Predict the structure of Class I SAM-dependent methyltransferase.
Amino acid sequence: MKVGKSGLPRNEVPGAFDVGAKAYDRLVGANPGYHEHLLKSAKRLRIPNLGAGLRLLDIGCGTGASTAALLEAAPHAEIVAADASAEMLDVARSKEWPSNVTFVHSRVEDLAMNGVDGPFDAILAAYLIRNVDDPDTELKSLLSLLRPGSTIAFHEYSVHDSLRARISWNVVSWGIIIPLGWLATRDATLYRHLWRSVVTFDGASAFMRRMQRAGYTGVARETMTGWQNDVVHTFLGSRPAEEER
């Protein structure tokens, strides 16, 4: 698979994750703050009452790291977790989960045809939106899955607005992520895609404007600690509450 100027063709991304699935948990586990930051984004959804009586969506769940974060933030919620990579999903399903967690094999574009319908009381989308063909369409689609007044958190890399963040990302990608990915799988395609897709993704300000154009209200951003400061962000937005009327 050839990595182009903006990363892999989007229809090839699930296949690249299939190749890296078995080594993925080991590699992200070596990334300081990876799981802690996913939990930060889940908690920034401010889900009330530990999720009791609520229905949540984890879209782009991968091997289940974001699902675990959402479960910790809302242990009493019904959680639907979906991913386009069958191999990543197999790794997720192989772990122990309570009965309130369900996994679905689906691209974000195909959720409805795979039986995933709203409304959801919150959505967590980790490392998802830069990997879709048409982010504007999928932003609107995810908005339609939210219950009016409810919030989505996009946990995402964005470095365009900060020279320091771009330098950090390039150094970490070429000095650590890509070499370790190749050593683990003997195929660096996924990790070169990861580097390139982040470099070419919206800056934080541009992505927030994109969310607003899609119809989200209360759009806000919070970043992370460590080397991921101004590299990884939580982008928050809500479906307008007045739609309940």
Observations:
- Helices lie at 13-29, 34-43, 65-73, 86-93, 135-145, 163-185, 189-199, 204-214.
- The mean pLDDT is 90.
- The longest helix spans residues 163-185.
- The beta strands are 55-59, 78-83, 101-105, 120-126, 146-157, 217-223, 232-238.
